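protien #1 (seq + structre)
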Amino acid sequence: MKTGPAVIPAFLAAIFLALAPIATPAAPAPAGSAAWSWPLSPRPAVLRTFDPPARPWLSGHRGVDLEAASDGAPVTAPASGTVSFVGVVVDRPVITIDHGNGLRSSFEPVESQLAAGALVADGGILGTVMSGHCGPVPCVHWGVRRGEEYLNPLAFVMDLRPSILLPPLDPAPG
């Protein structure tokens, strides 16, 4: 058996492949994800990530909180659709857009002059960010649902698949 330095990378690669989980087909990308855009500009910082509850009745964070440039910043439609709700939920103004294929996105606290039934284009202004959701930091909560299932909104604007770096198969000597 060969035991030189060239065998070590091959041996490590074989061990990695043997211990790696068996590849399964990836879940399909969210419908329309390639065409969705960020609802705030410039591209916002994510202040709080998606943290869905284990059961529908448990607490969790069913969307993401995005930092807005300022109170009153415009909130835009991440994809075209139809306004399905504009109103106050508990104490916050909310707007919900039906994007078709069972997908709905909602934004709060967003003050809007639109009415249910209004058509919105991708990038069209939905309303403006109101203060209060993230304390002194202006932000908007963005949620996405397919039917009754909450989805991570970031999956519609970013590639969330993990990256795997493998060692080179034939590294240069030295």
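ok now protien #2
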Amino acid sequence: MMMTYARDGTLATSSMEPGFVEFYGANFSDLAAQLYVYLGDMGEAQDVVQEAFCRAWVRWGRISRYEEPVGWVRRVAWNLATSRIRRLIIARRYARLERPRTVDGPAPDRVALMAALATLPANQRRAVVLHYLADMSVAQIADMCGAREGAVKTWLYRGRAALASQLRESEEASPHAR
């Protein structure tokens, strides 16, 4: 028989503990109905009650000796439901206070640059981005990529040349060209 332990150190077994199935069957519906009235959502109510029973099962060896084990499960379920309500209230408050922000789309120059970068081979694109956007030196890029500095310089040279050509063609094809 496989044995597991709960966080509180009590023993739980992989097979159903004696009496737990009956306890679950006798109490689940009533607890779910109570929590449904509290939460207003049957699915949520069933979820919190199920979670409470899962926590009880792991500790069943101890909880089954309580005078009223259903009281423990009810308390856990209500605590879980209250926590869900608190999170929902906070989320609604945040949503109400948070103003939607509008973000302008990318400028035409940025779109052209992104399109041109997409045409570069991966090594050239990586070298250009790391050198010009991440402000990394040739030595740092070489170290990161596991390449020689000469290779990185070649990637940068070829990448710049290809970008210049692509951007020149893009500017000439644009109806807004000067």
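DSSP finds eight helices and two strands in the chain.
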